[in-house]
Specification:
Length: 257
């Protein structure tokens, strides 16, 4: 017991608490860890467990004041840190959902929305398929381990309670929000182009042959061709997702500059 008492100094207690806040924010906002299907008690236990493991890695001096104002500002900084980093990585998953919504719309699957077990919200069928495949790719290249490595690097380069917005972060967020629509539209473009071409062909046929029944023939053909192109381009979609996620992960070094 006497060996534990020296570690219960005010500085160590504050550092332990701030590190727990950092892990709690990361688990609350980062991909995979933040999914609603994981119960709150498990998330809290995981945050505490990781805090105990990473606590010896905290630098000896963090420069945090012991007054209540300094502690509250440090807590706010840690919550903001977890939120911003989580949003940067989650945008890559939102790109897949956006592309899936566009594909579902042109294929006529907009009404076929189902409950997503991950987000507990109504999601178009194609969007959920892309989201689950993106999650599998994320786990396949050990994205959850990369997040833990990022936390370790942040303890070295970004002391607890010292996170602050910089121009680099704001500029990157603006660029990312613009690329969100561009990349999402690019992923869905093959099927969008095919749907437009099919509409032109079917419209021409209806002009020349008014007896042509678009509802009976046109929509099943569009769905079949859409699924065919979607299956053929699925590998490319996942490669683009993997590239964008790693690019977003590399951009997290902006927090250190």
């Amino acid at each position: 017991m006497m060996d534990i008492i020296p570690f219960l100094r005010e500085e160590n207690v504050i550092n332990f608490f701030l590190l727990f806040i950092r892990f709690s924010a990361i688990i609350a906002f980062f991909p995979f860890f933040s999914y609603i299907t994981i119960s709150t008690s498990i998330k809290a236990a995981l945050a505490f467990y990781l805090t105990v493991i990473f606590f010896p890695m905290i630098p000896a001096s963090t420069g945090i004041g012991l007054d209540i104002n300094s502690i509250m500002l440090a807590i706010l900084a840690e919550l903001t840190f977890g939120f911003i980093t989580g949003i940067i990585l989650k945008i890559t998953f939102f790109i897949l959902n956006f592309a899936g919504e566009l594909i579902s719309f042109v294929m006529g699957f907009t009404m076929a929305s189902i409950m997503d077990p991950v987000t507990q919200s109504q999601t178009p069928l194609i969007g959920q398929v892309l989201g689950l495949l993106g999650l599998l790719i994320f786990l396949q290249f050990d994205g959850h381990h990369l997040i833990l490595l990022f936390v370790y690097d942040s303890l070295v380069h970004l002391p607890l309670g010292e996170f602050a917005f910089t121009n680099n972060i704001v500029t990157y967020l603006n660029k990312t929000l613009i690329n969100f629509y561009i990349i999402g539209f690019t992923l869905a473009f093959p099927i969008l182009a095919l749907s437009l071409l099919a509409d032109i062909i079917f419209g021409t046929i209806m002009k020349t042959n008014p007896q042509f029944n678009l509802l009976v023939i046109g929509f099943p053909v569009k769905i079949f061709l859409g699924l065919l192109i979607f299956t053929a381009s699925l590998t490319s979609l996942m490669l683009v997702f993997k590239r964008e996620f790693k690019s977003a992960f590399d951009a997290l070094q902006l927090f250190y500059n």
